Amino acid sequence: MVISPVQYIAIPLIAAFLIPLFGKLNKELVRIIPGLVLLYLSYISVVLMNQVISQNTMIVEIIAGWRPPWGINLVFSPFSGFLASLFSMLGFIIWMYTYNFKREVEDAQTEKFYVLMMMLITGTIGIVLTGDIFNMFVFLEITAISAYSLTAFYRERDGAEAAFKYLLVGSFASFFILLAIVLLYSQVGTLNMADIAQKMPDVNPYMKGVILMLFFVGFGIEAEMFPLNGWAPDVYTQAPGPIGAIFAGMVVKAGIYGLVRVIFTLFDVHEIFPLLMIMGVITMAVSEVIALRQGKLKRMLAYSSIGQMGLVLVAFGIGTHEAVFAAIFLMFNHAVIKSLLFLSGTYLVYHSKEKNISDLDGIGKSLPFTSFLFALGSLAIVGLPPFAGFWSKLYILMAAADVRLIAVIAIILAVSVVEIVYYFRVLHRIYFRERISTIEIKIPSFNAKISMLILAIVIIVIGVYPDLISGLIERAATDLLDKQHYIQSVLSVGLH
Amino acid sequence: MMKRFFIFLILAIVGYYIVDVVSQIPFGENRVNVGDYYLDKSPSELKVSNTVTAIVVNYRGFDTLGEVTVLFLAATGLASIMFRRKRKGEKDIRAKKASSRIIQIGSQILFPIIILLGAYVFIHGHLSPGGGFQGGVIIATASLLMLISYRKFKVNHSTISWIESIAGIVFVLLGVTGLILGKTFLENFLPTGELNNLLSGGIIGIIYVAVGFKVAAELTGLIDTLLLNNRPEANKEK
């Protein structure tokens, strides 16, 4: 069997249905299988990415034998493929972290945790790979349903409340997106994204505007855009630590992907760019200021995450090739760095009931390795050299300077200062305070240490040699901006 | 007060635009490009007389696989959230007394008939209205009927998870087989047979049977999970 993009979906699905059966044979298999699946997905990512980059094409796979626009198709282009590869590899690293996580939880619960976690990752991969707008909605539902259940996974926390909030807001997002799809279908009579993009000029502008706004709000909720992000801090705080990393690294990224795919490829309306930028600036400024006032570690990380998403939106809103390049670079960096922060932060406040930042006083001596990685992540996310975060911020500032957006540059720099203040405040507590709290320390398991170390190494290596990845991102940016090429590649598949 | 005013204002604006846009969609005019193609191809190429089934299971089969997964995840997630040990002295939400004799005998008679109807609906999914989802739901109502009329009626969760898993795997493997045979994922690889025969439409009928089993097992499990938490037997180990 030739390696093809549909395996990203088919293999995890078979595994998800098999896990309950294997769980009856051996409890350990429940933990191992998701890892094997994610490892295999990482492997096919490398193979397919290689193929796409070396042959300078995009892989379009048709499903059920009906070529577009009649059937559903998957598109593994430099942009969507880059994100799918990122998600599967990051997913594998996070799986490694969870391998010994919560051994004391009942077996029945462990099984469900792993099935839901794997499907959460698969859902986000499906969102970026699909070439059909309704299919994207289906994958959005897969992601959302797993996300709701995982948020409420711990009974001893207030997870149920956070999950319910997320469920209500998420249903609104689904409703808006589905309504937009219905209206779009009534106008163009097709669900294939390339076909829609081709027929878009015939739709009347008023209809177009309303549909675009519905998509904007729907995906805006998923992408944590202000003021639609009320659910996010609670969810990040209550969900298990590694799931927080998946939310920050993948689920939000998939929401952003949906937003930019709709704006850049489907509609291609440039009037929306200033709105995107303004929403980005507001999201960034508001959430970073709120982050400054947070007393709980994970809440602070959550607001910081929202702020970074604001910055991504600003960069996409600028809309030039350099800005899109910077935005995708930031998406990559944020996925890696924020995952590291969530993974290491989880161990820093492991036994703390309140998860307060003040519980971290002097923890640098008791947990040197984890604290060091957390510090490294903090320095990277605020954008200090020589870490990965530096480059993406620099490219965004340069892209903004190119189009003379002085006010935006000023706000980004001001917000960076705020970011530095609240991250350094945490570092100060970790390293320069005496330990007074009596909360028990949890030493990370070996596999958790390895997974965090890998992320840290990626951050440093990309920081020193950004060229390792910038070539791929360059191609991804070109791919996103080249709408005609996308339409042609998809619609010409299966013709000859 | 201000907050409320703004909420209503926003709702009014959103509502206005939605109503306005929906009312602009012309009624009774065919603006669907792909529809004619489906109507034309389903009987001739796929040999499926129910075009809706052809769309659900073949043209957009990938979506259906996704929807089946959504249901599976919802059941898994619910079981994970509802999983708990009951405290002592907690009240039972099921009726204290057994149901009356009439209901018990009645549901005994109805039970096999409902199962039969459900099976008929999903086996004939490609010929007549209905299909896997509908048939599965009908079968699940049969178990609901038994659960409410007999206090002692038990659902075997082990069997349910076997049915769920095997049905799901059959669906995906049918898709993968197409891939192995050099076609595309979920493409039909069996002979399509003759229009309007029971054995027609290739893999479409088989997929719908699998979906029927899966939906029936999942919904039965869901209903039982919701009741199980409040049933004394579930907490015996304490």
Task: Tell me what you see in this structure.
The complex is a heterodimer of chains A (496) and B (238). Chain A is mainly α. Chain A contains 20 helices and 2 strands. Chain A has a two-stranded antiparallel ribbon. The longest helix of chain A is centred in the middle third of the chain and has 30 residues, at 159-188. The mean pLDDT of chain A is 90. Chain B has helices at 2-23, 33-46, 51-59, 61-82, 101-123, 132-149, 157-180, 203-228. The chains are: A mainly alpha (496), B mainly alpha (238).
Key attributes of the depicted protein:
heterodimer; A: 496 residues; mainly alpha; B: 238 residues; 8 helices
Question: How many helices of chain A does DSSP assign?
Answer: 20
Decide which structural class fits the backbone of chain B. mainly alpha
Topology order of chain B in helix (H) and strand (E) letters:
HHHHHHHH
Major sheet of chain A = 2 strands, antiparallel
Rg of chain B from C-alpha positions?
Answer: 23 Å
User: Structural class of the helices, strands and pairings of chain A?
Assistant: mainly alpha
Strand order, sheet with most strands of chain A: 1-2
Mean of residue pLDDT of chain A? 90
User: How many helices of chain B in DSSP terms?
Assistant: 8
- State the separation between the terminal residues of chain A, measured CA to CA: 22 Å
Measured by DSSP, the beta-strand proportion of chain A falls in under 5%
- Per DSSP E runs of 2 or more residues, the count of β-strands of chain A stands at 2
Return the string of H and E elements of chain A.
Answer: HHEEHHHHHHHHHHHHHHHHHH
Largest sheet of chain B: none
Strand content of chain B: under 5%
Estimated helix fraction of chain B: 55-70%
Query: Based on CA inertia axes, which overall geometry of chain B fits?
Result: globular
Cα end-to-end separation of chain B: 51 Å
Which chain pair shows the most residues in contact? A-B, 61 and 56 residues
| Average predicted local confidence, pLDDT of chain B | 84
